[in-house]
Amino acid sequence: MTDKNKLPIKAIDLQVLLKIVDDMDEESATHLLLRLFEIYLQETPRRINSMKEAIKHSDKDQLRNSAHVLKSSSAMLGAIEASTYSSELEKIGRNVGSTEKATELLLLLEKECEQVMAELRALMHKNSNVLYSIEQRKD
Question: Rg of the chain's alpha carbons, rounded to an integer?
Fold first, then answer.
């Protein structure tokens, strides 16, 4: 049985997280990272569901908007692959691609976001040590 809190970090570029808090004291940095993680964990499933509905109803505006928000929040946390998939979905929402491809991309995005969220939860496990946890896993 694998301890989910020892999950290897693959979907998140930890250097990006460390840059966010580079000039902050440990307490402030920990507080900020935990809050960003919580928001991502709350909002990502909503954004994915919104994109599912948008594809189902061929609502390109909703697809574009939800994908744009998830693209930005994923990039901010170093979830580069999730951000890339979101960017592709955003382009489809701008009429650059067919909605057939959107379903396939959304499945890939959803899987990637599940990995990102699992990794965020693992980093949050001992919230007072989130910076230590990031430092230990970054190599």
Answer: 16
Q: Which pair of structure tokens corresponds to residue 36?
A: 């960003």
Give, for 108, the enclosing helix (H) or strand (E).
helix 99-124
Domain that holds residue 49: 13-132
122: Cα within 13 Å, side-chain hemisphere: 22
Sign of CA dihedral 124, 132, 30, 113: negative
Which tokens is 8 given? 């290897």
8 Å CB contact between 107 and 34:
no
How far apart CA 121 and CA 59 sit, in angstroms, is 32
pLDDT band at 69 (very low <50, low <70, confident <90, very high): very high
Q: What is the pLDDT of residues 102-126, one digit of tens each?
A: 999 999 999 999 999 999 998 887 5
Looking at the structure of the chain, the number of domains it has is: 1
56 within domain boundaries: yes
